[in-house]
Amino acid sequence: MARINKVAVTGASGLIGTALVAQLKNDGYQVQKLVRRPVRTSDEVFWDPIKGQIDTQSLEGVDAIFHLAGASVGGKRWSAAYRSEILNSRLLGTTTIASACEQLKPAVFISASAIGHYGETGNRAVTEADGGGTDFLSIVCREWEAAASLAASVRTIKLRTGIVLDPTGGALGQMLPLFKFGLGGKLGSGKQWWSWITLHDQIKAMIFLLNSKIEGAVNLVTPNPVTNQQFTAALAHALKRPALFPAPAFALRAVLGGFSTEVLGSKRVMPQVLINAGFEFDYPHVSNALTELVK
Hints:
Strand content: 15-25%
Distance between the termini: 40 Å
Helix content: 25-40%
Largest sheet: 8 strands, mixed
Number of strands: 14
Strand order of the largest sheet: 4-3-2-1-5-6-8-12
């Protein structure tokens, strides 16, 4: 397999994208960031995912494309308008990038997706071989991945990412302030399964996949999902604080609206493709991960 040198990234300013770009540069890759505003530096390339525009000339010779851009599912209440934005930001952007891949012929196209694909799994463990759910995010993920498949002549990987743990953002970033003051607790019943991965292992896995022969769906979660109650207990222990203030389900539904289904829902997801490929997680267990992250 030819060595990959030149890598393009959409969503480069997000939590995962920022960390990915930094690690790629540290590893010696040439990185180009796709931006939706006028370019300011030589490593930026303009694109407009809504209009389907992209400066493919500046991307000539690219070896790999990571596509991470899309409207946040947790950023706002899910009004009808915002549901459309969540779906369209993924469909239009992914279609634009996949079409560019057909023209540019990189060695690999790695497109974001999410474990929302599986819907509610309860206590049942699922792998990449399992089918999808029927709720809103399941439908979004299914359409999202179908758009990525338009890059039919390129090795394509669909990253089904779980809860990404980092103190600077995401679920952990939002929970930390309450837990530091001893005001945290389980969410809802606490029995729902959370499938998670540290940002460190997320980036490590993405670069592992970049240089592999793997294609298709890949679950980016550790092999050790935990219940929400186990997670909150581990976080409280890492911070040396109590976890005495549970958030009742009805309150979360009132505050979060449609997104509450992701907080209260149960997804017990296993990274079977990564396990089979021999990938080694640096933080496979939640207690060690949280202790390291909250230092």
